[in-house]
Write a structure and sequence with these properties.
This protein has 12 helices and 12 strands. The chain is an alpha+beta fold and 493 residues long. The protein has a 5-stranded mixed sheet. The chain is rod-shaped, with a radius of gyration of 49 Å.
């Protein structure tokens, strides 16, 4: 399945809703109901045990009221009919009052009773109450139980023998009522939570999801950028970051489009330029045979310049490739190379710009001469353009100084000027193509190419802060490691 087909299926699923309970809203509603019901179960367990104890206490209190009256009649036995009526009214099979010194049977049925459980309502623990409650619910209904507790404030004990059918029936009714009430509370709570979270969470997420799908269909359309919600909560912040990412993506796409258009234009120009330069190269070769002293003085510089231009036309499209051409390194005299840069810049004497070369004559650097020339030329050209387009303040001298020194196996090259300095915007995108230009109309490719060439040599290039106005770039180029065999051979010789 292609990416377009998967995207279409995802869009159709989103539109169809794919079932309410398969979506985030439905799952949230179900989870809320389940969690509220779970909370109600946790509440129901101790409450049904308490209900059972209260029910038994009510039976003891009712029987105690009748037993106290009978107990006041000493040596009098109730008639059988009265005993039956008393037992029926209290829902018991026998009523007994026990004291330390004696016990008295208040009422008793004729049938013999087999007791299957005994419960002390006054001294029952929470765990025992819960256990007995579930025992009655699950297994009760036809058992005779003995229940006893204190008789009022006296030291006597009231004891009942009764079947637990009525108790179990009352507990089942109570459980049913609690379940229905819990279900109603769960539904109401779930609905309120669902409405609140759907408004605060689900709706914004759906909005961002729909925007991402719409944006992916045409990322270049500025109208598809998300309008972030106001606020400082997590979703608002996520929306703001998403909108920022979309804007940055559009900028990148625009830059990539510009780069592609530039590459196409350069490839067309490059084809014609190579033909023109080839003709100029043939003519310049003939100039070398002219005996005019002026021509002989400028002909070598012209030839080198045209040769470099021809080389540039071959490599102009190399920028931006996955792998750049490896530098052909050798030890190069640096001062003549910088002198060639100064000649190529052709600084107008009327501009007042002083190009200074501050390094030893015998200083050599392990580098590709053509690539190093391009690096120094790009930086020096930017410095000259900055000095040309801006007047220095307070009559400061207009200087471009190229200095270099070797420390161990590293050569440090500095290009310093007294111009206006690098603008903040250019500093933020210093080595970024199409964004790092310090002047209007610039592409920013010069510094980007310089950095790429320096990195190919295993070196570094950086903008250095300095206390005086102007711009200072520092390049550090290390020598290549010497192979062990070559080092031993050098020692032997």
């Amino acid at each position: 399945m292609t990416e377009e087909a998967r995207q279409a299926n995802a869009n159709e699923a989103l539109k169809a809703g794919a079932g309410f309970f398969r979506g985030l809203s439905g799952k949230l509603l179900l989870l809320t109901i389940v969690f509220v019901m779970l909370a109600e179960v946790l509440i129901f367990v101790p409450s049904v045990a308490t209900m059972r104890i209260r029910w038994l206490e009510d039976r003891l209190n009712t029987a105690a009221a009748a037993a106290v009256v009978v107990d006041g009649l000493q040596n009098v036995e109730l008639p059988r009919s009265v005993q039956k009526d008393t037992l029926m009214a209290t829902g018991t099979k026998a009523i007994v009052i026990r004291r330390k010194d004696a016990s008295r049977m208040i009422a008793l049925t004729d049938m013999p009773l087999e007791i299957e459980g005994e419960y002390d309502v006054a001294n029952s623990t929470a765990v025992a109450a819960i256990r007995d409650a579930f025992d009655t619910l699950l297994f009760g209904g036809d058992r005779v139980i003995r229940v006893y507790g204190p008789l009022g404030e006296s030291d006597a004990t009231i004891e009942l023998l009764m079947k637990d059918a009525s108790l179990r029936k009352a507990m089942l009714v109570y459980s049913r009522n609690v379940f229905v009430l819990s279900l109603i509370i769960s539904l109401i709570t779930a609905a309120l939570i669902f409405l609140a979270i759907n408004r605060m969470l689900i709706t914004p997420i759906r909005r961002m999801t729909a925007n991402m799908q719409e944006f992916s269909n045409d990322p270049a359309d500025p109208g598809r950028v998300l309008v972030p919600p106001e606020g400082r909560d997590e979703l608002a912040v996520a929306g703001q970051h998403l909108a920022s990412m979309q804007r940055e993506l559009q900028k990148t796409l625009k830059q990539q489009k510009s780069l592609a258009e530039l590459g196409l234009a350069v490839s067309k120009i490059n084809h014609d330029m190579r033909n023109i330069l080839s003709s100029a190269q043939l003519i310049s070769d003939r100039l070398a045979d002219v005996d005019d002293p002026v021509v002989k003085r400028f002909a070598p510089t012209l030839l080198r310049t045209i040769d470099r231009a021809v080389g540039y036309t071959r490599e102009v499209l190399s920028y931006g490739r996955t792998t750049e051409a490896e530098p052909h390194r050798r030890f190069v005299a640096l001062k003549p190379l910088v002198s060639d840069v100064a000649e190529l810049l052709a600084i107008d004497p009327q501009s007042g710009i002083d190009f200074q070369i501050q390094m030893q004559d015998d200083l050599e650097v392990d580098a590709d001469s053509e690539q190093l020339f391009r690096v120094v030329h790009n930086i020096c050209r930017n410095a000259v353009q900055a000095l040309t387009s801006h007047e220095t303040e307070d009559g400061r001298p207009r200087i471009v100084a190229v200095s270099a020194m070797r420390i161990g196996s590293v050569v440090t090259i500095s290009v310093d000027d007294t111009g206006p300095g690098m603008p903040p915007k250019a500093r933020e995108n210093l080595f970024a193509a199409f964004r790092g230009s310090a002047r209007s109309g610039g592409t920013g490719l010069g510094l980007a190419i310089a950095r790429e060439l320096v990195l190919a040599h295993g070196g570094t290039i950086a903008l250095v802060e300095k206390p005086t106005p102007g711009t200072l770039f520092r390049i550090e180029l290390p020598d290549r490691p010497v192979p062990l065999d070559a080092f031993r051979s050098k020692l032997r010789h």
